[in-house]
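Dear H.,

Thanks for agreeing to be a second pair of eyes. The structure we're designing against is below in token form, covering all 253 positions.
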């Protein structure tokens, strides 16, 4: 028979397990990266972490530790470090965190970085410049600037600041890249038309170009969520297929 103490422990364990699980679920307003692979998802996650950390360190090098004031005792410094570690463990907020999308071979890496597009641009530019493949399992790396429920109105609302940021300064050619998995509730043509209308509402002199657009609006629908971003040179850079862009003959077009 379970004692009161054991029952309390079990309930606490269930509570924290459920809380942790909820923390690592897809929600609205996330930034990150969609990573595709051909099987070997575990290896793809590891490879994605290594690649993203490498370039995040390059773009945002850690600040040098400030010299501790001489008057601050060693014990005080150690105490501050212990408190810091406790807070970090308690928050569990990592720079990159894998979250299951519910779609096979399509992973989402959540990030605390403000500009995921900046990271992917650096990665893509380096691979093209060096002509060297950097990943084996990770195939496509797509930055995600925000997420929202896969509902037409919420998609348009979430895209508003991204469209304003990218299409307000001058005329551009653009494309809308729409993919969907495990979701048949949205009408693809309707979503594309309405988002295009929102672009033209900002400036009427933008033009659609489905082959060589300067800027692409990415709408990835997976189950009940939409993963959104506005990415420059997305079509030119093989839709961020990291295996294709490292081949010089493929980039001479």
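And this is the sequence the design step returned. I haven't edited it by hand at all.
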């Amino acid at each position: 028979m379970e004692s009161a103490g054991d029952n309390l422990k079990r309930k606490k364990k269930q509570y924290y397990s459920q809380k942790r699980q909820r923390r690592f679920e897809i929600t609205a307003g996330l930034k990150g990266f969609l990573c595709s692979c051909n099987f070997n998802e575990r290896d793809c996650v590891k490879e994605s972490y290594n690649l993203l950390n490498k370039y995040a360190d390059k773009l945002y090098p850690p600040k040098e530790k400030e010299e501790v004031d001489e008057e601050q005792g060693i014990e005080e410094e150690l105490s501050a470090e212990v408190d810091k570690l406790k807070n970090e463990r308690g928050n569990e907020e990592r720079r990159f965190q894998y979250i299951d999308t519910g779609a096979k071979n399509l992973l989402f890496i959540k990030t605390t970085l403000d500009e995921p597009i900046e990271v992917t641009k650096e990665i893509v530019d380096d691979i093209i410049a060096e002509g060297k493949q950097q990943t084996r399992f990770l195939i496509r790396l797509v930055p995600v600037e925000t997420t929202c429920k896969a509902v037409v109105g919420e998609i348009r609302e979430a895209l508003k600041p991204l469209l304003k940021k990218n299409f307000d300064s001058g005329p551009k050619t653009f494309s809308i890249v729409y993919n969907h998995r495990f979701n048949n509730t949205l009408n693809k043509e309707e979503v594309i038309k309405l988002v295009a209308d929102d672009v033209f509402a900002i400036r009427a002199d933008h033009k659609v170009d489905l082959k060589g657009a300067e800027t692409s609006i990415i709408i990835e629908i997976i189950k009940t969520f939409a993963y959104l971003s506005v990415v420059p040179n997305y079509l030119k850079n093989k839709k961020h297929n990291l295996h294709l862009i490292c081949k010089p003959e493929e980039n001479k077009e």
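Two observations from my side: DSSP finds six helices and nine strands in the chain. Residues 128 and 246 are 5 Å apart (CA to CA).

Warmly,
E.
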